[in-house]
């Protein structure tokens, strides 16, 4: 009777996770984002998203069909 050393074959499954984060910028700038929206009813705009909940022109309430544009403005010089 011989002792059998059970050797389990190990499969080296290399987890190839090549994820590169290319967004590494120094954030030492203050950005002010201003969102404006255009009425899809009468195409009036730009309207301030914070002030004008409804279209000043046709009183159309801003819905998901209205185009919203967000622009980031770097404040400071
Ligand atoms: Zn409108
Ligand atoms: Zn709308």
Write the layout of secondary structure elements.
Layout: E1 31-38, E2 47-48, E3 67-74
Antiparallel strand pairs: 1-2, 1-3
The chain binds zinc ion (2 copies).
One zinc ion (ZN) is lined by residues 39, 41-42, 44, 55, 57-58, 60.
Task: Report on the architecture of this protein.
The protein has 77 residues and is mainly beta. The chain has a domain at 31-74. 0% of the residues lie in helices and 23% in strands. The chain has strands at residues 31-38, 47-48, 67-74. Strand 1 and strand 2 form a beta hairpin. The structure holds zinc ion (2 copies). One zinc ion binds next to loops.
User: What class, by secondary structure content?
Assistant: mainly beta
Residue share in helices?
under 10%
- Spell out which ligands are present: zinc ion
Strand order of the largest sheet: 2-1-3
Largest sheet: 3 strands, antiparallel
- Number of helical runs? 0
The count of strands amounts to 3
Give helix and strand order, one letter per element, not per position. EEE
Overall pLDDT:
83
Specify the oligomeric state: single chain
Q: CA-to-CA gap between the ends? A: 85 Å
Low-confidence stretches: none
Task: Estimate the strand proportion.
Answer: 15-25%
- How large, in whole angstroms, is the Cα Rg? 29 Å
Protein name: WGS project CABT00000000 data, contig 2.6
Region (Disordered): 1-32
Biased composition (Low complexity): 1-14
